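Example 3.2
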Amino acid sequence: MYRRVILVSLFILMCNLVLAQKDTGFFKVPYDTSTSKLNMDAVYNRPFLTHKKVPVAVGGYLEANSIYTINDGITDGLSFQARRLTLFLSSSIKNRLKFLTELEFEDGTKEIAIEFAALDLTIHPLLNFRGGIIMNPIGAFNQNHDGPKWEFVERPDVSTGIVPATWSNAGFGIYGKTNKNNWVFGYELYVSNGFDDRIIDNEENKTYLPASKDTEERFEENNSGLPMISGKVAIKNRKFGEIGLSYMGGVYNKFEADGLMLDKKRRVDVAAFDLNFTIPKINTNIIGEAVYAYIDVPGSYTQQFGESQWGMFVDFVQPVYRPKWFKWENSTLNLAMRFDYVDWNMGMFNGTTTLIGDNLMAITPAVSFRPSPQTVFRLNYRYSWQKDIVNNPAALSSSWIFGFSTYF
């Protein structure tokens, strides 16, 4: 029932905005492509539709695709997927006060999630307050994840297998940004709810941080009772690109109940490095991210549950042609390539020199066409090798994926 209420409410709001188009005050806030923007600005760096008589601006994006997958020579045939519909609602409440929320509907309405809902208080460019449901700034993809910005249908494996994609929690913090000449510097620092015991007690039967995304209580209760800290610093050269260093960590287990000690405090700590730059003259865009995670696993667990994990991805995007079809003056045809690697269990088995497996590697060549910067049509071919914990011959998987993603 609550899903129907949300859908009806959003439909009424959209209808009111559409009807407002009859007034000449109706306009679209353009997508900001200025070189002073960092990944931390992604939450507001989106196209919005607004009207001078309506205090709320509306935006969003849609992702849909077809997919044909073969796993070790076996296929279930062709499928069509409506992966996600995401809506943005923002409002300038008062001078120095603004609010934004991001609602995501996945697989139709199979899952409805509030990914971001925060109030921002601007004090100084270098000191701003944010509170509500915040997006933890670990890596770059977690904040800058909108489908229309990427040439690939699938999200990076490290951003879904180690860092929970679109990982957000209830919390508070500060952020700021400054610039001088061609340099831009930004930071974020938050305290929030965090992970819970599901990272080692889940259906995957391994250490798996994304399992905590299924804990809806994280928006109202912190499992450990101790805040998780997450923060990031980033620096950008307007002519070259951006690099960022980020950290997220805290106690994840319920170590105490009613004054009784149940266990020692067990931590999960995640560090990430990300980069995004363009090679001059040839305009090749390179985007990458590397993540390392350490998890204090109880000694009673077998080595099936890894204490150390790492992963990375790197994208190469090369514009090759700028056609003028249908009066699309800013259209671009791109060739792209992605490399993925994730290791959920680093190290060797105790008492042996045998490496622990449980890793995945993938390569994805792609062709994409953008009639405008806000819409992308994508053809991907993804080939992956995944090994189990004892390094048996890798399970092979290949997928043809065609789809689109667009802001609206």
